[in-house]
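User: Please predict the structure of the protein below. I'd like the answer in structure-token form so I can feed it into my own downstream comparison script.

Assistant: Understood. Taking the following sequence of 344 residues as input:
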Amino acid sequence: MSSNTLLKRALLVGAAAATAGVWAVAPRSFTDKRRNFVPDIPDVWYAHRGLHDAGSGLTPQYAAGSGEYVALARRMALKAGYATSDYSGPIAPENSCAAFAAACEAGFGIELDLQLTKDGQVVVVHDADLSRVAGDPRNIGDLTYEELTRIPLFGKGRPGDSRAKPVDDGSEDGVATAAATTGYYQHVPLLCEVLRIVAGRVPLIVEYKFTTNGWDAGCEQLMSKGDELLQAYDGRYVIESFHPGAVNWYRNHRPEVCRGQLAEDVSLGKADVGRWASGKLLFDWLSKPDFIAYDWHGGKSPQVRLARAMGAVPVSWTVRSQEELEECSPWFDHHIFEAFVPRR
């Protein structure tokens, strides 16, 4: 075989690979959006897990800017009617009714996370278990909603805590008991409770959370129950998920909803092939998203720039300082933030 023939074949293979790569990361088409009357993602700042005075992002690394943020969260939660001014503990922990009410009072959009309880209730919580937010090691999927109402979020903590103290109320195995639920506290809320509080005042980014990379009956149940509640909600929202199957569910069942693919760039040596491919947006052929919610560090990566050029709207997560915001702003149109009060 001649060198010219080999070169031609190599060029053809390269062109085919490039075409496949472009096809893989392509978002929903403009024609599809227009046919389904898909709204754009609202142009506001999105408070990560609500405007919170305890929880995600409030680490020593961001202490220089988080004081103002925590003070604002407490002030807005008080304005919304939660706790009293002399209350010394956390008023508005992450993903709580008080944190969402605080975000509404401040005029911020909200990013929140959905999971299912043991009794099939759709609740708003990020982690698979309660260790970080309540000091209780039990999994969300092993508890009923009634049980969750008796577990304080960041109980006995202080404003600005990033992690809850382990349960220490005389119970066995660090499990919270009803004895811990005296006085003011917030607990994991139902999605329907949160929707009543927000009541359309600010837009929502709703993330569907999963503990599996596969797709089973539990995944289907979360999608159908979450969507049923959102269909009855009279307010602006978009949906997102790290799981391409969840975004594809909306593609097939609710094409009129603005949908987003969550992702982050990870090296192949530090993650499995599926997670690596997801970070490269190679599953977008399945989800056909309207927006890409990407780790703020990766805005200038080739895959995000390509998706943006093809019409996907880039959204950063999670920006935690003014310096990070300024660094990533050229690459993103919208931002999910926490731990600081953003300024243009």
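That's the full token string. The longest strand covers residues 109-116.
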